[in-house]
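The instructor's notes for this session suggest beginning with a concrete chain rather than abstract definitions. Hand out the sequence below and ask the class to guess, before any prediction is shown, which regions might be ordered.
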Amino acid sequence: MENLKYSNILITGGTGFIGSHLVEELLKYGFKNIICTYRASNPRSYFYSQELPKKTTLASCDIKDFKRVFDILTKYEIDIVFHLAAQPIVDTAYKNPLETIETNVMGTVNLLEACRQKGDLKSVAVITSDKAYGKAEELPYTEEARLKGDHPYDASKTAADLMAQTYFRTYGLPVVIARFSNIFGPGDINFNRIIPGIMESIIMNEELLVRSDGKMIREYTYVKDVADGCVRLAQNIDEIKGEAFNFGSKNIFSVIDLIKKIEEILDVRVNYKILNIAKNEIPEQYLDWSKAKEKLDWQPKTSFEQGVKEVFNWYKNFYFSDK
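After discussion, reveal the predicted structure:
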C-alpha cells in the first residue's frame, strides 16, 4: 500500500454514496491526491456532511462526455481509477432505458477508452453489480456464472462488465471488476431503494410502498465493507488484473423478512403496502464471495444489526439536524 500512497487517484462518481465512503477509506490509508468527478452536488449528502470537499479535488464531469473524461485523466495525471459513476436506480432504468444505457454502458466505454489512450495506469477498478448476472440458474452466483441481464438496468451492468473484460483481453488495460450485492449504509439518499425507504417510513411515520410482491430475495452488504474491498483491488492489482470479484455478506432476506428484521433490531413497526408492480426484476439473488476472501483476504466486518443501527442514526440526523 505504501508504494501507492502518492498515486493520483480518480473516483468517477466520487461524491456519491459509495464514492464518499471510498474516499474516507483511502484517506484512512493516507492517500493524498484524490480527484472526484460529479455531475450534480447535494449539500446535504454524506460527501458534504463529512467535509470531504476539503480533502479532495472536485471535477465536474458527465461520463457520457468522452473529451471531458480524457481531459481529467490527463490533466491530473491519473494513476489509479475507481469507476463508480452510473445511473444506479433499477426503476429509473425501466422508465428511462436510453439514459441508463448511455450512462452505464457508453459512459464505461468512454472511461475505458480514455484510460487506454492515456496509458501508464496502475489500476482501473470497474464497479458493476450482482445484477450483471441476470436471473439465476444456480445460487449463489460465482464469478464464473454467465452474465445475462435482461432488465434494462441489469443489461446495462452486463454490458459494462463485458466491456471492462474486453479492454483487458484486447488492450491489456489493468482492469479489475467488482460485483457488489445490494449496498446499504449512511449516506444513501436514493429513497426508492428499500433500506432508505424503510428508514424514511419509520422516521417520518409514512407508509412504505413496496414495488415488488415482497418475496424478492436480496443480499445486503454494508458500504464500508465494500469500500474496503475496493481498496484491496488496487492494492493487489498485479496479481488479479483481468479478474472479477464478488463482494457480499450473509445478510440474505426477502423484502418482507428484511422489514421484519429491521423492526426487530430497532424495536419499531413499519407501515407498508405491497404494490406488486415491479417489472422483469430478478426474483432471488445472492453471491459466493469466497474468491475475495481467498485472494484479497476480504470479508465483511459489519454485522447487519450494527449496520442498521448506524444507518438509522444517520437518517435521523439527516432529517432533523436543521430543526
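Then share the key points. The first strand starts at residue 8 and ends at 12. Residues 71 and 322 are 39 Å apart (CA to CA).
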